Every structure is written in structure tokens, then in C-alpha cells.
């Protein structure tokens, strides 16, 4: 009988060896031009992005909370570093990367990963659709102003990707696409753009180094805003991607561990000459579609990337970009939630608005955090509006006409306070008022203040007021915040 630890190790790392290794190879090949492109975006040498992709992939494979998810250098974090690199140079970028990693570790220790519970399905769908569109748009430069042979090569690549699985799924079709198109381009000497045209591949291993910057408060003031932005955007994209991979694989992830894992990866990356990164939805989907499921796929992607650029860099540089464009178009098509278009007619209008607003926010700002923030804020507003409508106040007058019983039903909070106040006739001549809240819940300081006002104004008019039916949670907040049962309550009300 195998030892429990060994069984656990097998379950985590070696349950899908062949699938993970092949998927890792495909991901590594697709990562190289992307890492170079992201380096160009940030304004640094290509090796900065390549070293980052290697380090982040290897570390998150071990420390991350989502098996099968690919993390590396990304455009989302690269664009945030442009001004820092331009104004202060590479060393400050490396320092900001280390600090961003430390902030992400802190976020994980504070268990901020649980905040993903407050991101609605509509926001996630909008995020996915926006990324799919951005992935496709990112391929446009490789389809404009290029040799005419590029277009049939891309078409052939897509045909291989979608048709080869009909023959066999033993080998990932994206890998076959890369091999076949590379063989055709080399054999016939085709004049098409290659990976080598994107930038020079490094020829040495990444080396440990400490960023050469002055350790002063002024330096911290320079790098902290960039580090904070990178930390937030990186965690947001990582956690959103983890949610998507969870759904694709029907397996759970540890969000807080993912925060820590991403932080550790970025911290280490900064000391090895790499820039900050995060999870990549496109590469993660390539990994899943190619058969990757475990941590081994992420680890092998990082190791294969470094091995290929160091050992067979000359061959890697001859891979036609058309092959990688075809793969990314496949990713874009596979990522987009096509059912969301059909659901626009059947889903509630508010949900559709949230989804479309998230898409628009991401696409127009090119900032995932802004798009998601717009979606979350709109979700909150619409939710508050819906809940506020699940509220009503009814009343009945006693036989003698001197006692009125108000029955409050639903949720009493800031959005329903106006309706709550309007439901009471404060000028009615009464001896006694009974406010029955047994079917209601009092949520916040606004609702407590409204209850105070109603009670005190009735008392000012000479009526005796009794509140009945408070549930335990409502009673707790009322006891803590209410003033109607405190000495001098009417004077306090009048002072406001």
C-alpha cells in the first residue's frame, strides 16, 4: 500500500503526466512570442519578459492555488509599468515587481481572495468576453501589412486545430499546428514573419540580482503606486482566471493560496531580472484545451520555455507567427461565451447591462481592473435596487381608532429608507403605535436612523411607540446604534 504522502504527491503532480507535458510544451511555444511582445510594451529587453514567464510559471506551479492555470508575464501588468520604465529605468521596474509581490502575499494572508464571492456571474461573463475580444484584437497586427502567404497559413493552422482531433486526441492539435506550419515554412523557404522577428532570444540562464536602486523613502514613493496597481490588477486577473478554469475543469481552487503564490512568484521574479506578471486566461485555456490539468503542466511550461530558448533557440525563432496567431484565434473563439449573446434576450435587463458594461469598460480602457470595477459597481447598484423593491409596509387601526399597528415586511436599508419613512402618517392623532418588524430585517445605520426618527416623531406627537418582532441580528444593530431608547433622544433628534 502506498504511503499517504506519496499518494497525495501523485494526485497533485503525476496523475496526468503525458497530458500535462504535452500541454506544457504547447503553452511554452505560445508563451515565447507573447513574452517578447509584452517586454516591448513595457519598454524593456525581451529577456525580461521571457525570464519572468519562466520564473512565474515555475513558482506558481508549486505555490499557486489553481492547478492547471498558467501564470507568466502579461500585457495587463506590462502596460502599468511603461511610465516607470520610461522615467526611471529597468532597476525601478524590478523593485516595483518585488514590492508588488509582497503586497500580493499580504493580500493572501489577509484572505482577500474571498472577495471574489462578491463578483457576479454577469461580471465574470463580461470579463471573459472582453478578454476574448482583446485576444483577437491582439492578433490584428500579425494580419495587417504582412506577406499574403500569412493568410493561407493561418487558415491551414485553424483547419489543423479543429480537424485533427477528429482523427486522434493523443497529441494536442495546437502542437501539431506549430510543427506542421513550421515544417512547411522551413521546407519551402516561405517569406513569413517568425518568432525570431519579434526579438532576440536570451542565451543565458537568469541570474539572481538585487535591484540597483537607493533604499530611500523617495524610492518607495516612486515605486509604490506602480506596485500597488500591478498587485491589484494581477490579483484580479488571476482570481478571475482561476474562476474560469474552475468551471472548465469542474475542480476547486484555493483563492487565498493563489494570492500568496502569485506574490511569491513576482517577488522571486524581480530578483531574477523579470517583470511582474499574473495568470493568463488565453494560455490557461490553451493548457486546458491541450489536455493540461495538474501542476505539472504549469511547471513544464516554464521549464520547456527556458530550455527551448537556450537549447534550440535557433529552431524556435523559425516558428511562423501564423501558427501562433491561429492558436490564439482558437483561444479567442473558445473563450468567448457565445451563449451570452442569446441570453441577452432572456436574462434580466440589469444582468445584460452589467455584462455589456464590463466588456465595454475593459475594451475601451484596456484595463481589466477598470472593467471589472464598473461591472461590480453596477451589480451592487442593481442588486440594491431589486432588494429595495422587496419591501412593503401595511397598517391597521384598532376598533377604538386610537391604536395603529404597522407591519413592516422585507429589507430595510439605505435604498428602502425613503419608502419606509413615507409609509408612516406622523400627523395622525394616536395614543399608541405598534411597529411590527417580525417579517423585516434592519441592515444598516441608515435604517436604524430612519427607525429612530419615526419612533421619536410619534412620541413628540404624544403617542406611545412599541417596536416588536426584532430578529436577533436586527436587535443587535438597533441596540448598538439606536438613540430612541436613550435619555434625551428627542433633544438629539431636534439638534440634527
UniProtKB/TrEMBL annotation:
Classification via CDD domains: STAS_SulP_like_sulfate_transporter
UniProt keywords, alphabetically: Membrane, Transmembrane, Transmembrane helix
InterPro entries linked to this entry: Membrane-Transporter-like (IPR052706), SLC26A/SulP_dom (IPR011547), STAS_dom (IPR002645), STAS_dom_sf (IPR036513)
STAS domain span: 406-496
Chief site of localization: membrane
Keyword Transcription regulation in record: no
One GO cellular component term: membrane
Transmembrane stretches, start-end: 21-42, 48-64, 92-110, 122-140, 146-164, 171-190, 223-245, 296-313, 319-341, 353-384
Membrane topology: Multi-pass membrane protein
Subcellular location: Membrane
UniProt keyword rRNA-binding present: no
Protein name stated in the entry: Sulfate transporter
Upper lineage: Bacteria, Pseudomonadati, Pseudomonadota, Alphaproteobacteria, Hyphomonadales
Amino acid at each position: 500500500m502506498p504511503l499517504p504522502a506519496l499518494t497525495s504527491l501523485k494526485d497533485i503532480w503525476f496523475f496526468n503526466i503525458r497530458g500535462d507535458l504535452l500541454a506544457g510544451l504547447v503553452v511554452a511555444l505560445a508563451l515565447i512570442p507573447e513574452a517578447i511582445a509584452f517586454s516591448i510594451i513595457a519598454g524593456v529587453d525581451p529577456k525580461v519578459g521571457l525570464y519572468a514567464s519562466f520564473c512565474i510559471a515555475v513558482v506558481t506551479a508549486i505555490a499557486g492555488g489553481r492547478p492547471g492555470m498558467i501564470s507568466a508575464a502579461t500585457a495587463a501588468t506590462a502596460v502599468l509599468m511603461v511610465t516607470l520604465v520610461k522615467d526611471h529605468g529597468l532597476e525601478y521596474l524590478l523593485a516595483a515587481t518585488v514590492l508588488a509581490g509582497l503586497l500580493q502575499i499580504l493580500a493572501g494572508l489577509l484572505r482577500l481572495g474571498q472577495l471574489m464571492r462578491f463578483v457576479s456571474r454577469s461580471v465574470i461573463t463580461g470579463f471573459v468576453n472582453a478578454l476574448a475580444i482583446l485576444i483577437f484584437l491582439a492578433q490584428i497586427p500579425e494580419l495587417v501589412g504582412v506577406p499574403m502567404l500569412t493568410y493561407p497559413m493561418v487558415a491551414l493552422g485553424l483547419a489543423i486545430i479543429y480537424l485533427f482531433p477528429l482523427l486522434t486526441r493523443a497529441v494536442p492539435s495546437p502542437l501539431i499546428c506549430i510543427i506542421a506550419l513550421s515544417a512547411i515554412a522551413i521546407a519551402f523557404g516561405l517569406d513569413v514573419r517568425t518568432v525570431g522577428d519579434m526579438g532576440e532570444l536570451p542565451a543565458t540562464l537568469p541570474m539572481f540580482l538585487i535591484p540597483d536602486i537607493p533604499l530611500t523613502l523617495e524610492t518607495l514613493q516612486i515605486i509604490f503606486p506602480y506596485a500597488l496597481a500591478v498587485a491589484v490588477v494581477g490579483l484580479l486577473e488571476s482570481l478571475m482566471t482561476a474562476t474560469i478554469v474552475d468551471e472548465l475543469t469542474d475542480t476547486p481552487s484555493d483563492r487565498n493560496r493563489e494570492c500568496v503564490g502569485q506574490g511569491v512568484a513576482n517577488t522571486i521574479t524581480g530578483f531574477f531580472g523579470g517583470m511582474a506578471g499574473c495568470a493568463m486566461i488565453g494560455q490557461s485555456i490553451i493548457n486546458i484545451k491541450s489536455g493540461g490539468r495538474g501542476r505539472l503542466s504549469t511547471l513544464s511550461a516554464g521549464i520547456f520555455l527556458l530550455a527551448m530558448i537556450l537549447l534550440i533557440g535557433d529552431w524556435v525563432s523559425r516558428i511562423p507567427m501564423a501558427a501562433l496567431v491561429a492558436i490564439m484565434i482558437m483561444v479567442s473563439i473558445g473563450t468567448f461565451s457565445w451563449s451570452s449573446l442569446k441570453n441577452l434576450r432572456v436574462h434580466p435587463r440589469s444582468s445584460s447591462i452589467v455584462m455589456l458594461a464590463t466588456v465595454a469598460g475593459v475594451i475601451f480602457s484596456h484595463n481589466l481592473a477598470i472593467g471589472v470595477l464598473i461591472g461590480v459597481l453596477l451589480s451592487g447598484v442593481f442588486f440594491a435596487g431589486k432588494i429595495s423593491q422587496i419591501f412593503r409596509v401595511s397598517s391597521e387601526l384598532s376598533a377604538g381608532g386610537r391604536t395603529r399597528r404597522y407591519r413592516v415586511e422585507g429589507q430595510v436599508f439605505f435604498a428602502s429608507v425613503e419608502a419606509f419613512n413615507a409609509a408612516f402618517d406622523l400627523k395622525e392623532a394616536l395614543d399608541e403605535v405598534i411597529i411590527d418588524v417580525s417579517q423585516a430585517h434592519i441592515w444598516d445605520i441608515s435604517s436604524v436612523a430612519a427607525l429612530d426618527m419615526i419612533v421619536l416623531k410619534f412620541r413628540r406627537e404624544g403617542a406611545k411607540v412599541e417596536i416588536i418582532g426584532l430578529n436577533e441580528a436586527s436587535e443587535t444593530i438597533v441596540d448598538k446604534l439606536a438613540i430612541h431608547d436613550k435619555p434625551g433622544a428627542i433633544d438629539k433628534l431636534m439638534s440634527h
